[in-house]
Amino acid sequence: MENNLPVFLLNKNVQNNSFQKTRKSKLPFLEKTLKKIAVTIKLMYLQSEVTSGKKILHIHPQVKVFSFIYLIVVISLANNIKSQLSAFFFIVVFYLISKISYKYVYKKIIFLSFVFGLLIFLPASLNVITPGKIVFRIFTFNSPFHFLIYNVPQIIGITDSGIHVVELLFLRVLNSISLAMLFLYSSSFPQLIKGFKVFFIPDTFLMIISLAYKFIFILSKSIEETYFALKSRLAGNVHNKNAQNIISGRVFYIFKKAQSNYENTYAAMISKGYYGKVIFQNETKIKVADIYFLLIALITGITITLI
Amino acid sequence: MEKIISLKNINYSYFGKIPALRNITLDINSGEMFCIIGQNGSGKSTLLNIINALIFPDSGEIYFKENKITEKSIRDRSLNLQLRQSMGFIFQNSDVQLFCPSVFDELLFAPLQLNMSIEEARERAEQTLSYLNIEYLRERAVHMLSGGEKKKVAIASVLTMNPEILLIDEPLSGLDPKTQTFFLELLMELNRAGKTIIFTTHQLDLIDHLQPRVAVLSEEHTIQKTGTAAEILSDEQFLISVNLIHEHIHKHGEEIHKHYHSHYVFHKH
Hints:
The complex is a heterodimer of chains A (307) and B (269).
Chain A: H1 7-10, H2 29-45, H3 47-50, H4 54-57, H5 61-77, H6 81-98, H7 102-119, E1 134-140, E2 145-147, E3 150-152, E4 155-159, H8 160-185, H9 189-195, H10 203-233, H11 240-271, H12 288-306
Antiparallel strand pairs in A: 1-4, 2-3
Chain B: E1 3-14, E2 18-29, E3 33-37, H1 44-51, E4 59-64, E5 67-68, H2 77-86, E6 87-90, H3 94-97, H4 103-113, H5 118-131, H6 147-159, E7 165-169, H7 177-192, E8 196-201, H8 204-210, E9 213-217, E10 223-228, H9 229-234, H10 236-241, E11 248-252, E12 255-259, H11 263-267
Parallel strand pairs in B: 3-8, 3-9, 6-7, 7-8
Antiparallel strand pairs in B: 1-2, 1-4, 4-5, 9-10, 11-12
């Protein structure tokens, strides 16, 4: 049979020599960003699948949301280090019971707590903000002076009360984030949505959140596929001008995709009888296990408060 | 024939929990037409992504022309260039693959990334447009094309690289019968010209048409069998066991009957 292919397709490519000198290519920023976004969104959506907290997963969503809010309030009100440490202990126990990989989750928690619980509050340990006995001198001026609204003392240092305040704030942030992560990692997305009913949020609004979240997940798949398509045709770092072209093209594609998605979803809702009001099924009844869970949460909260 | 791709004991899972591939061992030769067949969710696309070094396995080894491909080794620019230049990937969803403003820009994209001169890149793009009879699409915006046109542009955008290996995920997905025929003939022509073609499918009739060497992926994400198209298609019990054929009812005129055959392979209609 005759072959009609263009001549260049019948010959082998000559290896391009301009890259022959072996050197490491850096993963371009664009690639890294696309990959990270896609994986993060996917993980968020699939968290209940990738974790194995099966038992805690089946707790009634509204019971779970109520317990979560209650414990967050308890942690926020607990005013001494011992209470916060006990809260930390209880949360770790909850992680173990839930069979969630606490090592994996705590890597994120420690980072977030370090930034939002320690770095931000660190200045509070100074005697300029929290007066007290100086335990560590940082700087000494010739004499005290007045700056804006602050009276700056002669010696700047970290005070014992300051350390206590920072410790307390750090533990509070750490515990709150750990609890929020526990809640997230042990709940599927539909469960979370149904759980919001405890705040009497209308079904229509929950439907909108649900659709938005699902759309973000679909979008993340598109982003990931785009990333692969790009990677398969890129041999090195992409030039700025090309990157601009690609990004503008992708933004437009995503906009078009968003438009067609919402039009199709709306059409599907109409065809299934939607007439302006969303009605969700009533959640199943509260079981004995849910009551036990609620009791454990209540006892934990009381214990933290009393310590 | 020279071994061009070699996979040894590849395992891959999503987020370390959801298995996608288990213990995959495969050798693909230069100039071969090779098909990975399996039902939906068996890991076909994941396997193609691994072959193209877009994702990397949890364990196991991949070799491309005897070069070991890892996430680290691919950062070496010369190896990366060699691999990207040698493999063209045609995705199932053409939309994600086309990201340049116009069709012509799309065809120029890969050659320019591979440091080809603008003159040579233009020449290749023109020849490819002409070969695929899509010159009329030259200045059109990619998002305005029909499904079949997008697929043709996606193929053209890869052909301008002149890859040795073509990876094609579900080649006939979403195409009308005329475009399907065009695509099948194109694949055969490219294979005759010495290109290695690796494609995934769940359609047995495609194997019957192209007669590739076949690897069958099972529901358990393992390779159950490799063999010629004839060997695979003739083993009815095996095809049933991997859910590639199943009992179904169909009509011949007014006659209704029920059997286990793959309709196309056995009835040719």
